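On clarity, I found the account of how folds are encoded harder to follow than it need be. Since the whole study asks how a given chain folds, the encoding of that fold should be made plain. For the editor and my fellow referees, an illustration may be useful. An entry of this sort, consisting of the sequence and the corresponding backbone structure tokens, reads as follows:

:::
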Amino acid sequence: MLLKKNIPWTYILGKIKFDLIVIGAYAAAFGLWHQDLNLHHITIPLAIPAIIGTVISLLLAFRSNQAYDRWWEARIIWGSIVNDSRTLIRQAQSFISDPDVSIDVREFIERFTQRQIYWTHSLGRMLRRQDALSQSDGYLNRSEAELVRHRRHIPNTLLQLHARDLKHAFDQGWINAYQQVEIDKTLTRLCDAMGKCERIKNTVFPTTYSLYIHFALYLFILMLPFGLTEHLGGILVPVIILISACFLFIEKMAIHLQDPFENKPTDTPMTTIARNIEYDLNEMIDERLDYASNASKVEVDEKYYYVL
């Protein structure tokens, strides 16, 4: 999904509420322990937590940048899917240029369009590890639905069906060899985009890097009260919670962005993009069918032009 409104604070705080509860309990226990036992002389120079905080900031900045790069790459890939989907149907329409197309050709273009629409939906659902076969009614005919039902990689199977229909169009003489090559290039770009999405999905962020950040962050939180107790006094607990929350927010943000296909508010809006593709392609095919069936001839300079 794509959120244009402000994300509710309940959602944001819900991601770190358990961490904040533990940190608050630790800070409160630390304050009571120092007060009751009168151990104010046990402190740590503030420079030590400051150095650790600086190191954590650099680590979190690197992780946030890498996570955002993954998210932005996913968005660019889906932007190319939008362009190539439109290009694919435009090629299928323009290369079969005779307005008096037969019923077989019209059905071919319409079936090609509906299959491409379903390809975008199935790819998004597969990346989110959902059932890619759901909601196939209306997009695939009975034989195609039966074929993909027995396949593991449904989007790849749909591209194979595209290639099969492309060969059939060439064998029927609807397109020539050059046009077949151009459409096949578009199918290749769609296949490349699918592979890039799978690469992002299957390449996990290094767990050792996350472990180091967690270790440094928890060490920083443990040492922070020792450096602030003589400066803050009674407001020690809320200050520690606020400082810790800032670091935890950044870490959680990076964790959510590093995998843009997990069906979260920060994900690439694949469902919305697929629906926009569906709207655009259906609009294109409706225009093509109207053009084929309702075109009127206008004679100009001894040539025939077709207008809507």
